[in-house]
Amino acid sequence: MDLDTLVVRFQKKDILAFEKLYDMYWVNICGVVHTIVKDKGLAEEITQDVFAKVWNNSDSYNASKGRFFTWILNIARNAAIDKVRSKSFKDQKKNLSADYFVGILNRADNTDESKAEIDTSALKKLVLNLKEKCLEIIEMLYFKGYTQTEASKELDIPLGTVKTRNRSCISQLRENVTLEWK
Amino acid sequence: MEVDKYIASGILELYVAGSLTEEQNVEVFQYAREYPEIRDEILAIESSILELTKSVSPKLSKRKGFDDVKVRIGERKDPQVVQFPEEKSNWSTYTGWAAAILLGIGVAWFYNENSQLKSNMNVVEQEKQILEQQIFEARGSLANTNQLLNSLRDKDVILTPLGGQEVSPTSYAKAYWNKKENKVYIDAQGLPEPPDGMVYQVWSLKLEPLTPTSMGLLDDFAQDENKIFTLDNPNETEAFGITLEPAGGSEGPNLEQLYTLGAVASS
């Protein structure tokens, strides 16, 4: 069954279709959430809640407004960022760095492999050759959910440059994915 | 529309990121429908982002899984949270269900009982109708019998016993002749049932010279309950005879099959 059919059935409250979508995207969503909250137990908890939210708000998804994955991604980012900004979270983890995605690789180099919450070997292969400014812009757009305008202000570059820079970064990523598959 | 330029602009990467405005999203969506190259490009971008996000997913020894999501959306009861602490509310729920089920059973029982009673009533009603019919028929039969009895008791009636003859010595019959009304009542109780294809025929006889005149047949002999047959008799009869004849009767009597015979008492 193709994705469009699954989504239509999911919106008609077909729990089996929903389970398939859950299986398709759980790992990705949990990855994004974990990148933000940096705690795997919490990441899983938030991800489960995200999917509950996805089910309860199935009506609000509209294919003309974006990809289904993008919709879930947005819900997940908001949930994770809300958590990070909450008082209870701040009380627990005072020294949390503001970087989400970029920091993983830096930390991975300094952390004992057995204690790491993620296996960074796949990530390392994927971001091979990607420059720091690529990691930066990918983090903003895909992990932090910045709009084009927000990214443009944050990086102090023109709107058009956000688009073109991001495109070339993603192209590099795609090349690495293709290499990975070979 | 220059598809290549559109793709190269980098808008599709932002589309997958969810960084575009609503209007831009609708635009990309429509182009993706229109141009397969655009749709394929979007899928390729999305798949690279899926790879990237997958690579940062944490290692979990055991996931909570979809069942846990089902609990959260109320599609499945959480065995730990719901059943134990909420025993009271569960108990009342079960009581409610039990009461509902009992009520259901009760209603079904009453319905069944009611149908049974209705069915019984129908049977009784039918039996009543049959009885009424029987009473009606009995009354009719009684009326007939009374009428018959009155006919036989009439003072103008002459009784003639008919004795058994050579063919059937034990047979007998009686003729009640109302001369005034020219009617004869034949009581044929003493005759055996005629064989198939045969019928009794009653004759009015003048003795000198012997002149038989047919008075009629004892039709449907076997079916007749009281075996009393009413025949017209305008003749100056001196004797009555009953013979066995082929079905439909004969012109003249077959005297070899004369069952009973009796002379009318001269008054």
Task: Characterise the protein shown here.
The complex is a heterodimer of chains A (182) and B (267). Chain A has helices spanning 3-11, 15-37, 40-56, 68-85, 87-92, 102-110, 121-126, 132-143, 148-155, 159-181. Chain A is an all-alpha fold. In chain A, helix 1 (3-11) crosses helix 2 (15-37) and helix 9 (148-155) packs across helix 10 (159-181). The radius of gyration of chain A is 17 Å and the shape is globular. The model of chain A has no long low-confidence stretch (mean pLDDT 87). With 267 residues, chain B is of the alpha+beta class. Chain B has two domains: 3-127; 157-263, Immunoglobulin-like. Helix content of chain B is 47%, strand content 20%. In chain B, helix 2 (11-17) crosses helix 4 and helix 3 (22-34) packs across helix 4 (36-55). The model of chain B is unreliable at 82-86 (pLDDT under 50).
Key terms for this structure?
heterodimer; A: about 180 residues; mainly alpha; 10 helices; globular; B: about 270 residues; alpha+beta; Immunoglobulin-like; 2 domains; eight-stranded antiparallel sheet
Q: In terms of per-residue confidence, which ranges of chain A show pLDDT below 50 for 5 or more consecutive residues?
A: none
Total strand count of chain B, please? 8
End-to-end Cα distance of chain A: 26 Å
Helical percentage of chain A:
over 70%
Could you tell me which chain pair has the largest interface and how many residues each side has?
Answer: A-B, 61 and 45 residues
Biggest sheet: strand arrangement of chain B: 5-4-7-8-1-2-3-6
